[in-house]
Structures are given as C-alpha cells and as structure tokens.
Design brief:
The chain is an alpha+beta fold. The strands form three sheets. It has a five-stranded antiparallel beta sheet with strand order 1-2-3-5-4, sandwiched between helices. Helix 4 packs antiparallel against helix 5, helix 4 packs parallel to helix 8 and helix 5 runs antiparallel to helix 8.
Length: about 270
Amino acid sequence: MSNIDLLQLCRRLLDTNAVPVTWHPGHAGTQVLRATTAEHGEVIVKPHRSRQRHTQEVHAYQTWVPALGDRAPRILATTDDPPAMVITAVPGVPLQQRRLAPEAEQDAFRQAGRLLKTLHAAGPPRMEPDWTTWLAERAEYWVHQAGDRLTPSRQAEVRAHMRALQDLAPLPAVPCHLDFMPRNMIHGDDGIVRLIDFEHSRYDLPARDLVRLATRIWPLRPDLHASFLEEYGQFTEADHQVLERCTHLDTLTALRPSLSGTRTTSPHSSG
C-alpha cells in the first residue's frame, strides 16, 4: 500500500482528521504509517503481507495481548480488505537501539521475562496437535529450501535433532510470540519495556520463544540470562531439550532472507 493509501485507511477506519507523523519501512517492502488522531493520540497503521499474518496478529491482539495490559499496544480497528489494522503507538525505541548501563539492561530483561511469562499464560495449554512432529516437518521443509547450502552431514545432523525432538512428545503448547527479540521490546524513557509485533504469534512450544535469546544474546551476557529467569522462572528439562533441538531449526530459517524477504526497523523506533 502507498503512503496515501495508508493515510486514507486510517481516516476511514478511525479518524477522518488523522494527520500523518511519519512512514516507516515494514516487512518485505511494505510501508507502515504513524499518525496522530484526536481520540487515541499517535497510532500505527500496519498492512499485512498475507492473510495468514493478518489473521494471526489480529487474533493475538484480540485474545492474548490484553493480558499484557499497558505493556503492549491495543488494537483499535481492523479490516480484511485490504488486510490491515490500526493499533496504539507505544512510547520509546527498540531495546536493541538503547545504550544502557548494565543495571538498566538487567532490569529490562527482568521485565522481558515477566512479559513472556504473562503471554505464555494468556491461553490454556494444548497437547494437540503434536507440535514436535509439526516442527520436524517444518525443519524438513527448510532443509529442502536450503538445497546445496547444507552439506549431507549437516542435513543428517538436523534430522537427528528433529527425531530427538519428536521423542519428547507429548509436550504442551502455549501462546507464543515467536519473534521475541530486543527489536520487538520497546524501551520507554520511563524505563518501561513493552512488547510489539505479534504477526508470528500462535500456539507453539514455549521454549521456542527463547531460542534466539539463548543463542544470540545470552552466551555473551549471562547476566541478562539470569535477570530474565528471575521473572520468567527456571527452565524445565524439557525446555532445555527443546532449546537444543530447535536451535538447529532456527539456523535453517536464518537462511531464508533470499527466499522470503528481510526484516526492517520497527515503526515504534521514533520516540
């Protein structure tokens, strides 16, 4: 959608006198509008790349996100044609853009642990379908997508880890964010951390939300790991197993930018 289309959409869905503040690059070439409205202040107008992403994010905002209270945006309006939504803008910048003292970083990760624990409890656990089998099937899909970028020995290693994951079944699934990284944790000037970007959210194994933190951040910052666990709670043995196995799935999906587009800056990155 063009910048004009986004503004017209905001005016149609929410406020006929909405005024644009700025436009931001979204996912896979999309644009996201930040606008100001009379009743709700600044809002975000977000178009979705697909019906699936639209359905997932709207469902998350209507079903699970309210459990986070003021620690996440609120959904204000939605439309299926085109697939898009309007949410409240939250104050701050992505945590990854902050330059904080270690104590402030630790506090932010304690808040992140509390947010994720709350999200994971926002819906009842589900034992069906078999999530381990589903993840193994996804891994097989990405193995095929990677093609000759994976050696035969690496393919065999991934498949062995997926078999070990399936051996853990049955495991409960809970509402998950599935892009739980500092780029989606908005850090306000008041030190409050808020969570955004729920377009990947769905039921999944809870440890799946921890894979990228565990592999990309915590190895160099064990203090942030410890701070996170203070609020989230200690991992179970099953969590440790899922983390180990799903790390290999994450490395496969990291090969996909050339196939499915890249991620860009959050629209909440301007104050």
